[in-house]
Amino acid sequence: MPSRYFCAAERCYSDTLKKGKYGYMEDVRFFPFPTKKKNPRARKKWLDLLRRKDYEPSRKHRVCSLHFVDGEPTTENPYPTLFAYNDFKSDKNSRQSTRCQQQRITDPQSTGGAITDSDTITDFSSYDTHVAITITQLFLDPQPSDHNYSFCEKGKEKSHIDHDCQTDITMEDMDNLFATKSKLQNPDSLLRELFVNKVTRDDRTVKQYTGAPSKPLLNGLFDILNSSSPNIKYWSGQGSTSTEEYQRNPDMKKSGPQRKLSRYEEFILTLVRLRLAIFTFFLADIFGVSESRVSQTVITWVNLMYQVFGPMIRYPSAQDVKKFMPKSFKLTFPNTRCIIDCTEFFIHKPRSPTAQSQTFSSYKQHNTFKALIGISPTGAIIFVSKLWGGNTSDRYITKESGFLDLIQPGDEIMADRGFLIRDLLLERHAKLIIPPFTQKCATGKGKRLSANDVIKTRNIARLRIHVERAIERIKNFHILSDTMPLNLKPIANQMLTVCAFLCNLQGPLVKK
């Protein structure tokens, strides 16, 4: 049986037994150290270049051909000069590269093969394939106990791995190394993957970045969207709404180049945009795509979520409302069906004078969009109107939004004093609950509330505050609370509905 030889260089795992298993080892040769008697100076030079303190090679130790510039000792290059400490560069540049190298690969004995914060990742493109694999083995495997560098005995030299305790690396490990190497060579893909992993790390980060209450719920929403539309046609302008052949045939794939982002990454991008209102150029840098691609993705997915989740915001029946009526309502206003209020969202000032006058809110002193929000006594959002200009009155929005079509005889609708819709509700045999107005004093000047009116006002205010809390939840999606760009106007209604649906996934505002 031929003798087994190991390479004596640090972080090199060349082994004669690996020649029959790995293709890259076929051309690797092993060269013995110069002897003390015949060539002591060359031997000392070899040992100095290895940079192993107090090291004396054994009979099984050699230096493999990967460390020689010419692949073997030659007259021009008789010494091994390609090592990990000089980034596998020739001896002429090794000193300069060593001085410039501020960080190095850590000792696998002390870190378990992991890269610390002070380490850098070397560009593998300039190295031989096997050399790159050898370096990568030190830090890419998350389970060092499966590899040779965690099996060395106590008392062995810590700066070097004893080859007698080496074990073979599986082909699955090699595949993982090549996959990770490709990620390291693609910074856009790596940054995108790290960001998505950060967003979906746990329930807390999921809620902060996306607005979904938990990670399982986030994944469930994606599964619903993914199954509801196997073939998505992405928005690319006004003329892109027609149905294509690949959308009608589930087995047919879309023509053209493959998209950079996966569906899940596009889903996360859209939710982060809604939740945090991050600029499109910043999202484009994180996900490694263009700004136009970010806008296209957000428009497409917002419309998809609106189509799938919009119908889930339903106006409940009177029986369901009474079944889950909180105690605070039962004691004072047991027939309350819905609590309504209007809210406004700031927008950039339009160029058109007509649009400026239609969207200018005298209450906010700003150009705004306005919407009617209705909640059940438990705090769930059960009605969201489309957006109107900030100059529109609450009465007009209530009348034209379709809310009155949901009213049934005997319902009680709670609102603020500004909702002058009592006559509209009386036509449907419903009742309006608003705080009483002040009345002229019987004696003296001025207006005031009676004692009973003060108590009623307090009771109504204590319950009506829940609609303000629901609106606050909606505005926690900063795409709505920040000043909205006018280029988002075409999907503003869809964004409002999607954000309202995501708010309903959170816990109830009013405890039973």
Detailed description of the structure:
There is one protein chain. With 512 residues, the protein is α/β, with parallel strands linked by helices. The chain has 20 helices and twelve strands. It has helices at 40-50, 91-100, 108-111, 129-136, 171-184, 187-199, 203-210, 215-228, 245-248, 263-276, 280-287, 291-309, 318-323, 327-332, 353-359, 394-400, 422-426, 451-475, 478-481, 492-504, and strands at residues 6-7, 30-31, 61-64, 336-346, 360-361, 366-375, 381-384, 388-389, 412-414, 431-433, 439-440, 447-448. Strands 4, 5, 6, 7, 8, 9 and 10 form a seven-stranded mixed beta sheet that branches. Helix 10 crosses helix 12, helix 11 crosses helix 12 (291-309) and helix 12 (291-309) crosses helix 20 (492-504). The chain is elongated, with a radius of gyration of 35 Å. The N and C termini lie far apart (81 Å).
Radius of gyration from the alpha-carbon trace, in angstroms: 35 Å
Characterize the main sheet: 7 strands, mixed
- Unreliable segments of 5+ consecutive residues: 93-167
Distinct helical segment count: 20
Name the assembly state. Answer: single chain
Q: Please give the number of β-strands.
A: 12
Termini separation comes to: 81 Å
Form type: elongated
Mean pLDDT: 81
Q: What fraction strand? A: 5-15%
Q: How much helix is in the residues?
A: 25-40%
Query: Which structural category fits the helices and strands?
Result: alpha/beta
